[in-house]
Amino acid sequence: AVPLVVSVSTALSAKNGLLIRNRASFERSRNIDAVIFDKTGTLTEGRFGITDVVTLSPDHDEDDVLNYSASLESYSEHPIARGFAKTAVKTYEVHDFRSIPGKGVQGRINGKHVEVVSPGFLTEHSAEASNEKLDELSLQGKTIVFVVVEGEVIGAVALADVIRGESKKAIKKLKEMGIRCIMITGDKKEVAEWVSNEIGLDKYYAEVLPHEKAEKIREIQSAGAVVAMTGDGINDAPALAQADVGIAIGAGTDVAIEAGDVVLVRSNPLDVVYTVKLARSTYSKML
Ligand code: ADP
Ligand code: MG
After folding, report:
1. Could you give the residue numbers annotated as active site?
2. Which of 160, 184, 209 represents a domain boundary (last residue)?
3. What ipTM does the predicted assembly reach?
4. So what's the pLDDT on residue 87?
5. Do the bridges between strand 95-100 and strand 112-117 make them parallel or antiparallel, or are there none, so unpaired?
6. Residue 69 CB partners (closer than 8 Å, separation 6+)
7. Tens of pLDDT along 228-246?
8. Pocket test for ligand 1, best of 71, 78, 189 (most atoms within 8 A of CB)
9. Residues whose beta carbons lie less than 5 angstroms from ion ligand 2
10. Ligand 1 pocket residue status of 81, Cβ below 6 Å
11. What's the domain range around 272?
């Protein structure tokens, strides 16, 4: 039989927007030492908007940069891609579209190979495209993607996301409860640093590739910590499964929700605090 306190907590959790998919994991959340948060869509709303377009080639103007990138991004479901919707003056037909997980997208437009990629991807391919303006935008926490046509970096687009209103408060409360708060993101160090400073994280890992996220969790666990992972993306699913408690953002992808032990129906980071508190009060009464 289900102990009374447990069924009471089930009712309480449902009322407060928690969906508990795995009770044993939920129970473990009373002993959590660290919460690892994904950035985009978890600590932030994951709703990007374009703030700046920069040209980096004398043969291409800002419209070129936008038209190529927006056409390509119309095939992607990534939050960054959604930021491009309705920006192109001209939309090109795209062939052989492919996404490069954690790095960008590519395809053929008018017979030319076109890529929209992360700064890290450029560096990997020994291309460097830095300028003062882009450095400044990075320091403001903006995400930069580069537009590459036939191997030439023709420009860059800066996009801004919004930090969720409750993120800072959630971090503060968790820290007061003796829980370490860490962020893990595929985005650049400057952006991670900016978000971290805004909300008071203990630590962050930046430029982490999708397949490396679960590995990072394992690393933190092997140092002896009981770990919760909070995320929303397809690329967070393995990390959610690896964590002692996987907490999925309700507005996130189906893949993340399937991998979660607890689902935050309201997508509110403060509900991570509530999860831990509820687990602590539920299971202390049972002992
Ligand atoms: P996060 O860990 O913040 O959720 P991802 O792993 O999904 O981020 O993506 C990491 C980086 O890969 C992004 O910051 C961006 O530079 C690049 N990227 C991913 N998808 C796209 C896309 N559709 N267009 C351009 N860049 C992308
Ligand atoms: Mg995310």
Report:
1. 38
2. 160
3. 0.94
4. 86
5. unpaired
6. 84, 116, 145, 147, 157
7. 999 999 899 999 999 999 9
8. 78
9. 38, 40-41, 232-233
10. yes
11. 4-45+163-286
